[in-house]
TrEMBL record:
This is SAV-6107-like HEPN domain-containing protein. Residues 61-144 form the SAV-6107-like HEPN domain.
Amino acid sequence: MAGPAAWTGDRRTRRKKDGVTDMTAQVRVMRRRGKVGPAAFLDEAERLLEASRTAASRDDAVVFAYRAACRAAGALIESARDGRRRMPAGSAWSRLRALLPEKEMWARRFEAHARFTNRVELGLERGLGDEAVAEVYRDACLLVDDARGECGYLPVVA
């Protein structure tokens, strides 16, 4: 987001330009109130994967795919908490590692993707190739599928 034009409009518009949608904001409010479960995280992850598939730029595709993976990690963390009031400290990936040691591979992989995505968002990675975008997207899809299976929240197929 460059220039003052990126910050024009009301707060709602600004949030949407940042990639934080109304649904994401609702999940955050529900999370603070302790009412969000794995299903809400997984639904948002699917929505973000769709946004990644239809993104106008490769940069946006990477960012949306990574955010989908973060929501999938949130679903896994919520399902593993089992009524615990306190969360382990740190990033989603360190929390995932602490609560579900068998997901270490995902944590390691997405910690690397987190650094890459951050560089993309800051504009430090230019001329992204199809392979880089496809790798983040593929890993995000696999993590969302893993989270759906782990949480027992599989899509309904007609």
